[in-house]
């Protein structure tokens, strides 16, 4: 049995290709390896692919025993910090179960260099979504993950070409790019930059009756911009907001949109674990596997 772990904004999701469960990030501070028995007995686990935070200190899919500082440059910066993801990572590492750590996509990653105008493109769990989407959409496609934040990726010929991180383009429900008002609040000392990021989503910036339509518009624009590089690419949306906005996004970009549920990242990571540990994969989505 192979397991993928999605370190999401509000929860950690654990999945094999057939079973899954979730734990809020706050409750995950009490996680033990025995919790994985909700999927299967621990002695039956053959490999795990785990995501942790931004994954910005590694560029390869790497054996957990070879990763320093859990694969991140620092815990400081954009995002919510609770300790749940740290607990899960450390328990997996201490268990002795074979595991790899998924990298984020950033300036050192093997993507189109034009995307490196920004330091960070996507956190590791989005690679799980992309791997899951590839099973349905083929070797070239675009997938947007719309929830607390919005991140969109372009995969070309089975390799990550580039992505837009949550603080660069389309807002999510909670997070978004920092606009002029946010910069002024920061300069006045009313908020930190991270607090402003956590208050830049549509729930904080537009009336309730416009939130879904606003999110759909920005997600559609993010997808449309990636289609400049792959005009025929099929499109998928994942994340908690996908069912609510998919029809409007499809109308705006004038092509069908495939919808994936909240388990796509964890299931995709489980597929990656299977292909690494059982299939001997040496690269996944254009990223090297270092074991």
UniProtKB/TrEMBL annotation:
<comment type="similarity">
    <text>Belongs to the UPF0285 family.</text>
</comment>
<dbReference type="InterPro" id="IPR016735">
    <property type="entry name" value="Methan_mark_12"/>
</dbReference>
<protein>
    <recommendedName>
        <fullName>UPF0285 protein OU421_09210</fullName>
    </recommendedName>
</protein>
